[in-house]
Amino acid sequence: MQVIPAIDLLGGHCVRLHQGDYGQVTHFGDDPVAQALSWQRQGAQRLHLVDLDGAKSGEPINDAAVKAITAALEIPVQLGGGVRTAQRAEDLLNFGLDRVILGTAAIEQPELVAQLARRHPGRVVVGIDAKAGLVATRGWLETSSMKATDLARRLGGSGIAAIISTDIATDGTLAGPNLEALRAMAEASSVPVIASGGIGNLEHLLSLLALEPLGVQGVIVGRALYDGRVDLAEALEAVGEGRLLDSQQPPFSASIA
After folding, report:
1. Does the reported pTM lie above 0.85?
2. Torsion angle defined by CA atoms of residues 210, 215, 217 and 223, in that order, rounded to the nearest 10 degrees
3. CB 3.0-4.6 Å disulfide test: which of 55, 63, 211, 212 passes with 81?
4. Selection from 101, 120, 111 nearest residue 55 by Cα
5. Is there a catalytic annotation at residue 51?
6. Residue range of the domain that includes 208
């Protein structure tokens, strides 16, 4: 299982939101490049970026930071937030990103997702963010009438590389992942699922291993790493690439690329 550290960008700064609330922002640093390099030095095999400004307004406010991060790192970088047009996706991939993550577009423009997935095999991921089981869009400011599991099923033939499943109620809370919701998403999805939201300690990460046979093959960790509640090297040793490499199995990125 791949453990993926997250950097959430707001106005060029590293932050975290509580349950996706832009009114509850915790500031963690002013140098996202330095933070990205730190995660790479600690053993991360992939970095997850969230453009919070893009998710909320659709404006590319953080592009300078994104370009600087991709130029500085050797590991693959993926980004989500405000990717709602083919041109935006193409621009981001041209910045050097390994993957782009579409969220709102997956429910409003499913044909766009399929088109991009065909054009860029292994480089298009869909983020399904759920509030009480329903898909939330536009930076979690709106909630649709579609069930998250129904969207996962609909995406089965789209050619996407993976689904990032976020339970908004647990995101940023450190209270643990919603295992029931993740199980339902994994059972509904025909592509690998990456868990996101609620990780607060190593035990929470270990709890995800029971879902690995169902297709939960990665986990994004944010606040717990910044707070020091989870040590990245320890997490990698316990559930991540360290063990996979010891057994000479391919890393998660290769399995869905």
Report:
1. yes
2. -70
3. 55
4. 101
5. no
6. 2-256
User: Which uninterrupted H or E stretch holds 162?
Assistant: strand 162-167
145: its two tokens: 């009438």
CATH number at residue 104: 3.20.20.70
Q: Which of 51, 129, 167, 171 is catalytic?
A: 129
Tokens for 167, please give them: 């339970």
Chain segment 1-60, per-residue pLDDT in tens:
999 999 999 998 998 777 667 777 788 888 999 999 999 999 999 999 999 998 888 788
Number of domains into which the chain is organized: 1
Catalytic residue among 8, 53, 98, 171: 8
Extract the tokens encoding 11. Answer: 């106005």
d(CA 90, CA 96): 10
- Give bridge partners of residue 137 from the DSSP assignment: 142
Phi (first) and psi of residue 35, to 5 degrees: -65, -40
Single out the residue of 15, 19, 48 nearest to residue 175, CA to CA. 19
Instruction: Report residues of the chain scoring pLDDT below 50.
Output: 242-257
Six token digits for residue 55: 């998710």
Give CA torsion, residues 251, 252, 256, 257, to 10 deg.
-50
Q: Which amino acid belongs to residue 4? A: I
Q: Phi/psi of residue 19, each to 5°?
A: 55, 35
What is the pLDDT, as a whole number, of residue 243?
Answer: 40
Q: How far apart are CA 193 and CA 68, in angstroms?
A: 28
For strands 99-102 and 124-131, give the pairing.
parallel
How many Cβ atoms sit within 10 Å of the Cβ of residue 14?
22
Q: Hey, CA dihedral for 15, 20, 21, 24, is it positive or negative?
A: negative
